Amino acid sequence: MEEELLKVLKGSRIFEGLEEEECRKVLALLEPIKFKSGEIIFEEASPGTELYVMPRGRVSVELRLADKSVTERIYQAYDNEVFGEMALIDGHRRSARVRAMEDLEIFKVEREKLLALMEEDYRIGYKIMSNMAKILATRLRDTNLSLRNALLQNRYIFDEIQ
Q1: With the C-alpha atoms ordered 102, 103, 106, 110, is the resulting torsion angle positive or negative?
Q2: Which domains does the chain have, with CATH numbers?
Q3: pLDDT digits (tens, 9 = 90+) for 38-72
Q4: How many Å apart are CA 91 and CA 161, to the nearest integer?
Q5: pTM of this prediction?
């Protein structure tokens, strides 16, 4: 399992560019955790204290809509993905809910432990934060595109009504 996790770390965007020895330092921080299909891994607005490494499986990333009784899936994460990584940057509350879409064995990394490693080994810290900046830039670009499309659709609907 260790070699499989090493492969997942090396293949994930947040740990991209880490040398094998650096990946092994991160690997030492991983704690296994299991979830049943349909189980909530974390709720929107819950404290962001860890990120998750998923060697195999599928999770749904969901947002509560305005009335809070309805959720909308905004993303699905699959094999070899890392999620919950925004907590790494600011430790603020979660921006979305994540739910297991099948039985899972995943691994969590506590924010404080990873930050301590990043302070101890600046090369690891630089690589992870550089990767986070790229990930967040991509997400912001995608969000801007989605927002533009939603605004255009609303304008089209408004024009049709008039």
Answers
A1: positive
A2: 2-161 (2.60.120.10)
A3: 999 999 999 999 999 898 999 999 998 877 778 88
A4: 44
A5: 0.81
